[in-house]
Amino acid sequence: MIRVTVWNEYIHEVEEPFVAQVYPGGIHEVLRRLLEDVDFEITTSYLRKDEYQGLSPELLKNTDVLLWWSHCANDELSDDTAARVAERVRSGMGYIVLHAGRNSKPFKLMMGTRCSAVWRDWNERTFVWNTCPSHPIAAGVPEVFELEGEEMYGEYFDIPRPDDVVFVSWFAGGNVFRGGVTFTYGQGKIFYFHPGHERCRSLYHENVIKILKNAVCWAKPVPAKNIDGGVFAPPLTEIADHENRT
Ligand code: ZN
Fold first, then answer.
1. How far is the CA of 170 from the centre of ligand 1 (A)?
2. Which tens digits make up the pLDDT trace of 65-86?
3. Count of CB atoms within 10 A of residue 41's CB?
4. Preceding peptide of 204 cis, ω within 30°
5. This prediction's pTM
6. CA of 74 to the centre of ligand 1 (A)
7. Residue 100 CA, ligand 1 centroid: distance in Å
8. Domain containing 20: what range?
9. Tell me, what CATH number does 64's domain have?
């Protein structure tokens, strides 16, 4: 059983009736329903939930994979919360970041770059190309699929060199974007995926859901030994004169 937490900013859905119509109950509740799987135990949470911004130490400790959606309140998240998320990823928690979550404090902290990109909120026809078909996140995903409307994010995307570019998106206005990329951070696996503008229905698309389910399975923690590091390592073979070495 993979313990999944879907964390959402949950502000657009509260403040804008149109967004509430697209994602009733909030993006987190819609994703909880769409990602339902016998292998997943899904919890939802959101920014203004409690004093821990919906990410209490207890919840983080009991999360194998954290799904993240945020946008207009990226600055409201405290540095302390961002640091606690990054520390959990460093220790092995998977982290899946959607859409404008690329500008969130935890993601930028872990990337170490600005994570900026060009953008245009014109609800453009988008083709998502599968550029790494052998990757577990791309399992069962066609060579290309279409989103009928999405916010354009385009190059240059200021991220470190990814482990894999699993998807590249093309937008009707001509821009392209490395929109599905993976990273390793300490013991943790990270997947960034661009769809999910709050006024678009991309998160309902069957291939987007398939990709997110694949990503959860891929990002789940793998038990690792000695993740604290810094311990003395006895030699595997006898080293005769080690006491005389300086
Ligand atoms: Zn957006």
1. 16
2. 999 999 999 999 999 999 999 9
3. 12
4. no
5. 0.94
6. 12
7. 6
8. 2-113+178-225
9. 3.40.50.880
